[in-house]
Amino acid sequence: MNLLELRGVHTHVGAYHILHGVDLEVPAGQVTMLLGRNGAGKTSTLRTLMGLWTASRGTVSFKGEDITQLATPAIAARGIAYVPETMGVFGELTVAENLLLAARRARKLAELDTARLDWLFGFFPALKTFWGHPAGKLSGGQKQMLAIARALIEPRELLVIDEPSKGLAPAIVLNLIEALRSVKAEAGTTVLLVEQNFRVAAELGDRVAVMDDGKVVHRGAMAALIADTELQQRLLGLSLGAHQ
């Protein structure tokens, strides 16, 4: 069963035709990797499904409901969390306040789910260390951790993440992999992940869709792509194995 589906999605931004009929399926309970060369349309696809850009043609469906024309807050309210490539943390607010903003069930810090926080601190201990510090003073990698933790502060049905390992040290990347594995295994959360780190793609992906020139040109099992170096070269211009 597909939790999310894009059918024939076109997106225009001003005079530019960005997406050219994207067809994408995201099966429930799995991690779907969205891969492709720079400029292929991956981030544009995420922005469109989140309503940040409006599709000019085609449909975006979540749990069978057409959400194509919904505003971003209405899409998020359906249980979709989005971590943009830019992270989008609030620099003047503390780490704690950033997490509180994302926890719709809590109105003050004392109401945050402490068990959930401890679970997040296990993967990203720096967030506990800098709990009361302004987020703007964190390193780039720590801001990325905060952005991901903010998306995970409450259970979500779909987690949409744009290049989460970007700027992270290798040890933190391993923590990220374990966190996302845990989210899928323990909570049954579905994940759609854009990632340039092919080790992360290989470790996490169940399914893969490869984009080129604003459309999906390949879809299938991630394991099959990992095993086929010729297909990797043709679709991505490089070998996944060389980056593990």
Commentary on this structure:
The C terminus is likely disordered. The chain has a 6-stranded mixed sheet, with helices on both faces. A 4-stranded antiparallel sheet has the order 2-1-4-5, covered by helices on one side. It has 244 residues and is of the alpha/beta class. It contains 10 helices and 10 strands. It has 2 domains: 162 residues, P-loop containing nucleotide triphosphate hydrolases (Rossmann fold); 67 residues, no CATH class. Keywords: Amino-acid transport, ATP-binding, Cell membrane, Membrane, Nucleotide-binding, Transport. Belongs to the ABC transporter superfamily. This is Amino acid/amide ABC transporter ATP-binding protein 2 (HAAT family). GO terms for molecular function: ATP binding; ATP hydrolysis activity; branched-chain amino acid transmembrane transporter activity.
Quick structural summary:
The protein has helices at 42-49, 72-76, 95-102, 114-123, 125-129, 140-152, 170-187, 198-204, 222-227, 229-236; strands spanning 2-13, 16-27, 31-36, 55-62, 65-66, 80-83, 158-162, 190-194, 207-212, 215-221. It is an alpha/beta fold and 244 residues long.
